[in-house]
Amino acid sequence: MRGFLKPLITTAAVVMMIAFANIGAKADTVTFSTDARFNGGAFGAPITFGGTVQLSFQGIVPPGGTVNAPSNTSLGEIVVSCVGGGTACVPVNITGTTFDIRITQTIPAPGGTALITSTLSGTIGGDASTGTGITFTTMSATIGPVTYTILNNPLALVPVTTNNGHTSIQAAVTTVPEPTSMLLLGTGLIGAAGAVRRRFRGR
What we know:
Blueprint: H1 2-25, E1 28-38, E2 47-49, E3 53-59, E4 65-69, E5 71-82, E6 92-93, E7 98-107, E8 112-124, E9 129-136, E10 140-143, E11 146-150, E12 166-175, H2 179-201
Antiparallel strand pairs: 1-4, 1-7, 2-3, 3-5, 5-12, 6-8, 7-8, 8-9, 10-11, 11-12
Helix pairs in contact: 1-2
């Protein structure tokens, strides 16, 4: 019996190593763009609080950014600015404001769109911020074989005097294994079992 099992185990192990190496080494190209909206308004439109503080979103513009998944990347930046310029605007309350990021994927085809949703809280101004900032209520979005997952939740917003008011929203971009790679693994194991069976019958 040992003579029967040893070749099967050895062959199966080799096939699995080759298949998983192929899956792990392959990087999948993903191309996507992003835009956003506040309080369910128009995508791309900024929002102003108290006539003094404005929030806007700088997304990934079409034709989009390209990453080799799996990898971490920016989905865009929320930008805080003082209406009229400068940094002298006093902090305003942003609690309860909704913020949705729309991801539009073009590669891999056929692509599609998905939303990542969040709620803002605290205060933000020219030189100070308080509270949580952004709390994501939807942490990930999946389009076809690609999943975008927020890395920092909650995410604090920075005032105008910090990084010019830019807060980057980072996400992990991952893909599921290709069917062809899994097929390689399955057919390899079946072939190994068949070869050992033939050898056993020939004895």
